Predict the structure.
Amino acid sequence: MLKIDKLVVGYPTKTLLVIKNLSIKSGEIVALIGKSGCGKSTLFSTIAGHIDTIDGGFFLDGENDISYIKGNVALTLQGFPLFHWLTVEENLRLATKIKNSKNIDFNTVLKSFNAQHIAHVYPRQLSGGEKCRASLAQAILTKPSLLMLDEPFTGLDTITKNSISQNIFSFTKKNNTSVIMITHDIHDAVSYAHKIIVLGQKDSDSLSEIIKIFDSREDNVYESIISILEKEYK
Amino acid sequence: MKTTYMATLRYLVSIIILLLIWKAMVVVFSLPAYILPPPDMVIATLFKESELFFRAFLYTISNTLIGGALGVLLGIFLAMFLAYSKSARWIIEPYLMIFQSFPRESLFPLFLVWLGFGIGPKIMNSFLLSFFPVAVLVLNALINVDDRYIKLMKSWYASKREEFIYCRLPYAVPQIVSAVKVGLPLALIGAVLGEFLGGSEGLGYLIISSGAQFRVDRIFASITILAMIGLSFLAIIQLIQNIFLKKYYF
């Protein structure tokens, strides 16, 4: 479970993002939506521990100790980077070595993403879907309690996207893992997430904050998000 | 392997064409040997005076290898140190740029004054010519790592040391090999220039002294040996690239 309490991010001279209150339950999938520069990546990097906060903070499973957060947060990056001089399995091994995780069954992890056949393949020989599978396998190796996905389905065809999303969300359901997913695709957000957070600026030069949180089962959620984003882009 | 054979064949064909043009020029323009000796005469000189050329070759190659090895290795180590330590980079990088920006050959008279006429100034010249370009190229390679890889390391909360060992260094390996490819021929140039300017041995000295005696065949024979040394350096590095790097990087 992730609980954000009066989180302020930015520089001493300029505040960029304020999240007054937000909680994400264990096993819950949350989509972050908003126009470019609205603070999605800033919030993402802050929770990942890459950006220091000015004020406030967040608790993961009730802990705000950075070493606990580092051990229990995993993320995938846009474009699914993998070291091109290592095979997929070597990439996975390096991640576990650096994260100091032991007793990892790489085969099982790769199998859970239908990626066991690419274990000994170099990234340059992989398709976009295979790269995505390898990156996700790398992220979930340590069974994190929070999985953060930056544009996980960009550039994938519908069949591959469905197959990969099934792999991810069956893993997160089984392990009760919370998910924060940045996406530009409102369809993806509505289809996969329980909650959809629209980030943005309430007026043109103000700081970024949560404009609205939607339950993806609400009626006309798609249209409501579109109407907010249309105002944002004006 | 097929690529290696094709590359070798390409070079052989180019050399044969060059020799044919050379020979044709000598015959067509009836050029005397003291202006342009025919290639067969140069080859004959190479064999006839093989002992002289071999001694000169040994002298030049040993200076080149000592200076070049020092230049390349120290250049790589300095670049690694500077890439790792921002504060050291802040202090030392301007010196790298200063020494990279002017002809370092102009320092040679100083080496003659400081180190005498022996192998010292030649090795120093060879070292200096290869050290700075290698250091600059390797430093750039270690600093300008694909940003996505750095983000990936950060996503695993890697330490600075881990980021360097597992990301920056392996990422830069192909560029480091390319830097060596640049550095070693420069080391050869450094050694030969040293022999031109203040020597009594080596292929550089042989070229200068043969010029004074109008022994143009000897000049061409010496240049042929130098070209073969330079090409051998490139071939060895290309072989290393093909054998070790192709699998991982290309």
About this structure: The mean pLDDT of chain B is 92. The radius of gyration of chain B is 22 Å. Chain B touches chain A at residues 146, 148-149, 151-158, 162, 166-167, 170-171, 173, 248-249 (CB under 8 Å). The first helix of chain B runs from residue 2 to 28.
